[in-house]
Amino acid sequence: MTTIYDPRAARTIAKAEAAKAQAQAEAVREQTRRDREARRAEQAREERRERRRERQQRWARWRKAAPDTALAGLWAALIVAPLVLAWDAQARFAAAVLHVPAGMSWLFPLAIEAGAWVCAFEAHRRARRGAPVGSLLRWMWLLAGIAAAINAAHGTADYGLVAGLALGTLSLLGVLLHHIRQSLDAAEADGRTGREISQRFARWLMFPWMSWRAARVAVRVGLDHPAAWEAAWIDRHGVGPAASRRDRRLAKVIVKRQAKADRKAAENGGFTIINGVILRTTLPALDVPAAPPAAELSTPIEQRKLSRRAAALLESTRAAIAAGELPERPSANAIRRRFGGAMETAQEVRDALADMHPVASGSEAA
After folding, report:
1. Where are the beta strands (DSSP E) in the chain?
2. Which residue ranges run through the membrane (predicted)?
């Protein structure tokens, strides 16, 4: 086979192949540019959608928080307004009556009003981070009461009784509103419902003296409000708050009669205090014996009166008998070896136990 080589044809073919390769490369570049522009457009559309979602979320959060924000602003205005009015009144009083220089008259309301607010905000700050509030609230009310008394006094002296009451109320109103808001926040943090809060408020409104007694019990014993409320009613009426009016009246009569009898018994030595607990000096038997036959009934035995030491030792001895550490009728030596003390006291306890647990005639015969 013979191949004819034509240089001109080879150059033509090479040029055609080069043009074809260049056209293919240009097509690839154009496709790459289009893909890049499509990705950029898609990315721009995604960014616009993301910004739209963010704006919608911000608007939804703002709409959701708007009532709380408006209410918080209203609370702040109501709390600050009495403070500003009381501050201005006391500054004028310091300048006009106390003759404090005009440039320093603001120090008088600062000294009078700011103390209660410092205690209030410190209590709020501690409560928010879970720290104990301590006595800050009591000092807050004490300082607010002092400021109210000063405001009422100079308002009455300068403008009359009504003005004095109004100025005194201004010193208490802001602190009271702040305390109400703080109590609501604390109740929400503790998980208390609105019904419980309204119930406590109604109790303070309808039973102020009983609510005060319950608050004293809660502080003294460390109880929560429901338990302190129950304890206050039992302490006052002898029955709980769920008792009917008839039962409360009956319980009042019973408590009065029992208190009178107990006072009389205490005056006659019928009670003693052991380890902070009030006990009767004449104690009942540990076991209730079975009633003997009618033929064996004997004259009842009167329990003798014990001295104070013997009464205390009798209680310890009976506890030891119940625990099995002493026999039911221990001897004076056994009591003295177990608890110590004088032999006369141990003999008194032995005789008292013998009176409580007399030996039956059948066992004596045996």
Report:
1. 271-274, 277-280
2. 65-86, 106-124, 136-153, 159-177
